Amino acid sequence: MKEKTKGIILSVVVIISLITIFIHQPIEIKRDIFNNTRHKNDEIQLIMNEAVDFISQDGITVTRVHYDGKESQETENKLINDYGYQDAIVVYLEFHTGFFNIPSGFIGNYHASGYQYVCIKNNQGIWELHSVGYG
Hints:
- Keywords: Membrane, Transmembrane, Transmembrane helix.
- This is DUF4829 domain-containing protein.
- This protein is an alpha+beta fold.
- The protein is built from three helices and five strands, in the order αβαβαβββ.
- It has helices spanning 2-23, 41-55, 69-82; strands at residues 30-34, 60-68, 87-97, 111-121, 127-133.
- Strands 1-2-3-4-5 form a five-stranded mixed beta sheet.
């Protein structure tokens, strides 16, 4: 009986240890650039990094960020042609929100896809955040 109890306790300790290790593993963010005919890749990478930094907070886990020139072309052209910005880049985020730790403005246990992070280049040539959300 004592050996069985020791085995159960050891099993529980091992399971708790594995869960702790798994929870603390960083999630690798997938980064992709598609159909880019307009921008320098390093500028897109810069905006992607800013987008991940902006949305990453307690309760949000970013899983993917991407740029697709075909997907963002309409929004970028509108910002340049209609509003007169020097340039624009739209990147798209995928992320999950937590079940208990819910950031303000989000709902819990939610998977977001196609969440836009829109940056414009002002007249001084500096990239700045224009808007976030669903376009």
